[in-house]
Write a structure and sequence with these properties.
By secondary structure, the chain is α+β, with helices and mostly antiparallel strands. The protein contains 6 helices and 8 strands, in the order ββαααβββαβαββα. The longest helix has 14 residues. The protein binds coenzyme A (COA).
Length: 185
């Protein structure tokens, strides 16, 4: 069964909406920042064509699916601040990812966007579990996951080869019931 259509969400400071081809230059620019790419899986340099192809694929299938989809984080005046990523990983489970252009770090935008996405995933998409994983050296990402209540569940040691060496993989997750407990008044 196909997943739900990807949403457009609004928060006090953000519009969160599916990637479109016109976003490709901005998306590519911050993907090519070595500081942004350090703990992420894409090859460098990240080509513009890859972003364009991804945006077109999403237009063909604008649903939550097993392949990664991208939601852009748009700030005031329509400026692109970064993106969230998501994919289905099993029956009512999904993985999320997140990236902000460096100029927009330290202002709470990722937490604001990810919180809104979690709300959508646990209510509209009725998911049971949302998870994320990261290189434990990626401390800003670990802090972000903690901020939005994902639980650290353990770390696989030297789990995958990344750029210049074997890399640990730290696992985080949140259940729908836990999210509901925190958000039901
Ligand atoms: C991971 C990443 C998105 C986190 O960005 P971030 O800006 O640190 O995250 P947040 O949106 O949660 O912002 C939190 C910071 O904003 C500050 N802040 C300022 N205004 C705020 C507000 N209105 N609301 C909340 N926080 C606010 C917080 O105090 C916190 O500051 P601190 O970092 O000094 O503690 C960013 O570092 C990034 O893009 N990294 C590279 C990509 C990457 O590795 N992604 C993960 C792959 S697994």
């Amino acid at each position: 069964m196909p997943g739900p259509l990807l949403p457009t969400l609004h928060t006090p400071r953000l519009t969160i909406r599916p990637l479109i081809p016109a976003d490709a230059p901005a998306f590519t620019a911050y993907h090519n920042d070595p500081e942004i790419a350090r703990y992420q899986g894409w090859d460098m340099p990240y080509p513009l064509e890859q972003a364009e192809v991804h945006a077109r694929e999403m237009q063909v299938d604008p649903s939550l699916r097993e392949d990664w989809s991208t939601l852009m984080l748009e700030g005031a005046g329509g400026s692109v601040l970064g993106n969230l990523s998501l994919r289905l990983t099993g029956h009512r489970t999904a993985e999320v990812g997140f990236t902000l252009a460096r100029a927009h770090w330290g202002q709470g935008y990722a937490a604001e966007g990810l919180s809104a996405l979690l709300a959508w995933l646990f209510t509209q998409a009725d998911l049971h579990r949302v998870h994320a994983s990261l290189d434990p050296r990626n401390v800003r990402s670990a802090a972000l996951l903690k901020r939005v209540d994902l639980r650290f569940e353990g770390c696989s040691v030297q789990a995958y080869w990344h750029r210049d060496g074997w890399t640990d993989d730290a696992h985080y997750a949140l259940l729908q019931s836990e999210w509901q407990e925190k958000h039901d008044t």
